[in-house]
Write a structure and sequence with these properties.
mainly alpha; 55% helix
Length: 97
């Protein structure tokens, strides 16, 4: 049996706590019977896991978007669309020699 640590509710923001409550209501609504204490605990654990998973996906997508653009000198040939020889010579006058 795999042991999973329970996610603390303190790790969530106020909006995420509301989402957890909504997930709990949705998951308990799917049950055809009244949930026992053990089932309620498992449902709460699952709701927290789902909300945390969404947060990780959202934060990782932000990290990808926040990458710094490369310097033009480090760009690959296929990435260069427009090359200006005059600008290159101004930047490096020793290239004329």
């Amino acid at each position: 049996m795999r042991s999973e640590k329970e996610i603390s509710i303190d790790q969530f923001t106020a909006d995420e706590k509301i989402l957890v409550e909504q997930r709990v209501k949705a998951l308990t609504g799917k049950l055809s019977h009244l949930a026992s204490k053990k089932e309620e605990k498992e449902i709460l654990k699952e709701a927290k896991r789902l909300v945390m998973k969404e947060r990780v996906v959202r934060e990782s997508s932000k990290a990808v978007m926040a990458k710094r653009p490369r310097k033009p000198s480090a760009a690959k040939e296929s990435e260069i669309k427009d090359f200006s020889w005059t600008a290159s010579l101004r930047k490096n006058p020793r290239a004329l020699k």
